[in-house]
Sequence to fold (230 residues):
Amino acid sequence: MKLIGEINMKEKEKKIENEPLLSSWELVDWDLDFETFEWFLHLCEVNNRHLAGDQWVIWPDWPSDMPEEVEIEHRQSWLNLLQFIHESDQISVCQNLVRVNGNHGSVFFLEFLGVTIGWGNISLSENPPDSVVKILLEQYDNHPSCKIVPGHLQSLCLEPNSSEIVSTSLFSVLMMLIHEVNVWDIATDYHWAVCKWCGDSDFGSGRKTPHNVMHRIVCYSCRNDAPLTN
Ligand SMILES: [Zn+2]
Fold:
């Protein structure tokens, strides 16, 4: 009797390793909105919870499309992304809003729009966190642009790479937001140019260093070629 009991136990363990628990549906939070990213994440988590930290491999058997239909060959990539989000202390999801806490104290939000569309623009505050400013000032020889994000760069468009599927691109963007210095680097990469001929001023792309010397750039207003930049 003891031997049979052990064999049954081993068979049972094997079954648990390979298949979701029959009670997966009992674990589901039915109050969530079925059309949201939060539901997508939750449903995958519930179906893979029995794997206890191993790679998620089970695609939920859910009759309707989740936010949109995911192609079979892309499912593992989505499971990998969702497992990463679930296990990250720095990422949380509420409905379609993904919140990322950067390593240096920034809080970023991105809105998930669908498995083929991707996500919306990422809003940035006017000033990077002090610890990021310090890093950028060292990197760019105290260039004044490091302290401020101009208005036109406060909505950052980090679009999915067209050659990649959205799950892979989203993983890259989440990693970038967690390691946030590069995000602020992009957003503060400009110079303020004042034309010495007509006095017009504007933002130009790219930091001009050294920032306190003149750079020859064509002025958009008067077409002269020596505006002052800082
Ligand atoms: Zn000018």
Summary: The beta strands are 91-94, 97-101, 107-114, 118-119, 122-123, 155-156, 190-195, 201-205, 227-229. Residues 2-18 form the longest helix (17 residues).
